From TrEMBL:
The lineage of its organism: Bacteria, Pseudomonadati, Bacteroidota, Flavobacteriia, Flavobacteriales. Transmembrane segments: none annotated. Keywords: CBS domain. Residues 11-67, 86-139 form the CBS domain. This is CBS domain-containing protein. It comes from Lacinutrix iliipiscaria.
């Protein structure tokens, strides 16, 4: 295992994002359609938060039963905005941060994804799943 491997080698580069003006129904559709668990929230080109599928489950148990269901019950979602539900105090890394450093951050915190930022622009996202897949490849 290489000690200085940059996170850019394992991060997702084609990042699906939400605009802060999108609604939670849109967010749930993106989570289910793309089979992902974390979506950066942007305002223009600036990342302002991170929404996780768990954040949605905290406010609504309605769709937790069937992840394959495409129809979304939006009654609860209409009571909240993305900005009210998303995590706002983000820790980010750059593409040169090592995989080891990313693993240390995620091991100490209670979240499972980090945005990767270069020159104030979102260039990727790295998740605990990316780290696990990297470790599996090493064996």
């Amino acid at each position: 295992m290489k000690k200085r491997t940059p996170v850019s080698s394992i991060m997702t580069k084609d990042v699906i994002t939400l605009n802060h003006t999108d609604d939670l129904e849109t967010a749930e559709r993106l989570f289910k359609k793309n089979k992902i668990r974390h979506i950066p929230v942007v305002s223009g080109h600036e990342i302002i938060g991170m929404l996780s599928y768990t954040d949605l489950l905290r406010i609504s148990f309605a769709d937790a039963i069937d992840e394959e269901e495409e129809n979304v019950d939006t009654v609860v979602y209409n009571m909240f905005t993305i900005e009210q539900v998303m995590a706002k105090n983000l820790i980010s890394v750059n593409s040169h941060t090592t995989i080891k450093e990313v693993a240390e951050i995620l091991a100490k915190k209670e979240f499972h994804a980090l945005p990767v930022i270069e020159n104030n622009t979102l260039v990727g996202i790295v998740t605990t799943t990316d780290l696990i897949n990297y470790l599996i490849e090493q064996f």
